[in-house]
Amino acid sequence: MSLQALAEQPFELLVELERRARAAIAGREGAPTSTDEWVGIGFRLGAERFVTSRADVREVLPIPDQVTRVPGAKPWLRGIANLRGQLLTVVDLKSFLGSGAPTQDRQARVLVVASRDVPTGLIVDEVVGFRRFGAEDYRDEASPSVIRCEHYLEGSYRRGSELWPRFSLLKLLEDPLFLTAGEAVRA
Fold it and tell me: What is the pTM of this model?
């Protein structure tokens, strides 16, 4: 199909340009030109790597300078931050999962979850960028993890020797333990 033929159809023109760009990049890298691919964002918690759906992440940010602590909140709830006029709950994901002290590394980032109902930013040790996988790379079973997050894993992707467990941010946001961030009141 010629690009000239799509001149009057801007959306279709953009789709065709993207398809051609992907094919060119894949051809240059020697990868198969599959349209059946899944794109996620890779991140690290401790020594373990995970991937989450690109559609579930609104943006990636450095840890905000101003995070206001919430009185009576559990230690993994770092507080709230003002993100361009919107209040954002900031959670240390590794601490929530019971896997260590809050992150202090310069590589740490905040994954802002794409949810209007629960505006949440999750602090992770590092974001390693986009990861693309073909349908043949997916496995239903998730690998065992040192970090106790089995409830939030939805299979994994394997490419060569690399294994990327798929972490579901939406399952995390639906978990009653996650939604109950207040300390229990002692009588």
Answer: 0.76
